[in-house]
Amino acid sequence: MAILERLAPDCLWGTFQAVVPGAPARTGDGRQRFGDHEVLEAIVFIATSGSS
After folding, report:
1. How far apart (Å, rounded) are the C-alpha atoms in residues 48 and 46?
2. DSSP characters for 20-31?
3. What is the pLDDT of residues 10-19, one digit of tens each?
4. Do residues 36 and 12 make contact, with C-beta atoms less than 8 angstroms apart?
5. Among residues 46, 52, 51, which one has the least CA distance to residue 7?
6. What is the pLDDT of residue 3?
């Protein structure tokens, strides 16, 4: 099982989508935002790795 699938399985992703609002409309130039799935994986990684 890949680390990304282990950190944010489909059941967790479904719950996350139900409570997080959609992305705001993008205006102007600037850095492109990360996807919600990547952000969820990063949050779970930090929460479970003991990093602070």
Report:
1. 6
2. SPPPPPP-SSSP
3. 788 788 888 8
4. no
5. 46
6. 67
| Token pair in block for residue 7 | 């950190």
b/e sequence 9-26, b meaning 16+ C-beta within 10 Å: eeeeeeebeeeeeeeeee
Do 44 and 9 touch, CB atoms closer than 8 A?
Answer: no
Q: Which residues contact 40 (CB under 8 A, 6 or more apart)?
A: 8, 12, 13, 16
Which whole-number Å values give the CA distances from 16 to 11, 25, 32, 49, 52, in the listed order? 9, 20, 21, 20, 22
Provide the token pair at 52: 């602070």
How many C-beta atoms lie closer than 10 Å to residue 41's C-beta? 20
